[in-house]
Amino acid sequence: MWRYVAFFQMIFNPAAGGGNSVATWHIVKDELNRRGVDFRVRTSKHPGHTVELAHQIAKFNDRDDTVLLVIGGDGTLNQAVTGIREAGNTTMPVAYVPAGSGNDFARANRISKDPLTVLDAILDTQAPVRVDIGEFHERTRDQHGYFVNNVGVGFDAAVVDAANQSRLKGFLNRVHLGTLAYILSIFGVLFNRHAFEARVHVGDEHDIIPNAYICTTTNHPYFGGGFPIMPGASVIDGQLDLIVVEERHWWIFIFLCAQILLRKKLDFEGIHHYRAAKLYVETSSLEFGQMDGEELGTRPFELEFNVTDQLFWMGDLNPQ
Ligand SMILES: Nc1ncnc2c1ncn2[C@@H]1O[C@H](COP(=O)(O)OP(=O)(O)OP(=O)(O)O)[C@@H](O)[C@H]1O
């Protein structure tokens, strides 16, 4: 069935990477034309539009050799996967050319930053591969969703919120320093930090963590444009990883962040780690939330997580 790719349905987000994705799109389009590859492109016209576009493509697809090729960042990839899944399509594979600022999903799967290298791998692909993605149900607002990277409550979500509000982000993206926007936001958020109570249920374990500060469920090691928050996490183990970091003293928190940046083993009192296919996290206070770098707003969160999988069209799978 998957001997060759006959047809690419493409979604391109011109706003990803602070607009740098436009150059990637031109490279991809020119190369596909040069190789005589059959494709159709749709451009994301506004925030969230990729969900609608992917939904339509997945719902009305009448060919069994269609691959959805996504050009954008983690948020665009999230929306494409969400649209496919919401359409009830579990057979259409996703190919991905990273063109965002963080590109954590690409980093975790060792997908090249060079569009022509990625395209080569996509066009050489013979069969789809299954990759873990996360699924969540947030009970307080009855919200359901999917994530390719992570869902976080607390510190990381406050950083995403601050980075997205930052006027500097667009400029830093244009000069290829997108990660710096997150680093600057981290310092801003650190000055306003507060701890919250997190209740975690995993299997028979029921923990109450009174002074949580980072509470992130992740599909792979990276967050925020390359921070290896959970080095052992994998997209092919059929499990999700939850890391909860307590807020004790600011200098301990800085020390822990340094350990994360230096990729040291996070084996300290005050760091809680859970790995399972199903997880439950609850906060009693209003907190920021984020999903793959997209804001979830503020609310008390009651999050049920499950691991599921998605077909990807991306050459030999080589995850970290
Ligand atoms: N035409 C558009 N104009 C403005 N924003 C758009 C448009 N199309 C999509 N978006 C929004 O652009 C946002 C950013 O996309 P994306 O996350 O892919 O890029 P990024 O933030 O640069 O990369 P990363 O998530 O990897 O850091 C998404 O929230 C998406 O909804």
UniProtKB/TrEMBL annotation:
InterPro entries given in the database record: ATP-NAD_kinase_N, Diacylglycerol/lipid_kinase, Diacylglycerol_kinase_cat_dom, Lipid_Phosphate_FormReg, NAD/diacylglycerol_kinase_sf, YegS/DAGK_C
Keyword Transferase belongs to the record: yes
**Ranges of residues in domain DAGKc:** 3-140
Q: Which cofactor does it need?
A: Mg(2+)
**Keyword ATP-binding in annotation:** yes
**Xref: SMART domains:** DAGKc
**Which keywords has UniProt assigned to this entry?**
ATP-binding, Kinase, Lipid biosynthesis, Lipid metabolism, Nucleotide-binding, Phospholipid biosynthesis, Phospholipid metabolism, Transferase
Gene Ontology molecular function, alphabetical: ATP binding; kinase activity
GO biological process terms, alphabetically, are:
phospholipid biosynthetic process
Q: Which PANTHER family match?
A: SPHINGOSINE KINASE, SPHINGOSINE KINASE RELATED PROTEIN
NCBIfam families assigned: YegS/Rv2252/BmrU family lipid kinase
**Which family is it part of?**
Belongs to the diacylglycerol/lipid kinase family.
Name of the protein: Diacylglycerol kinase family protein
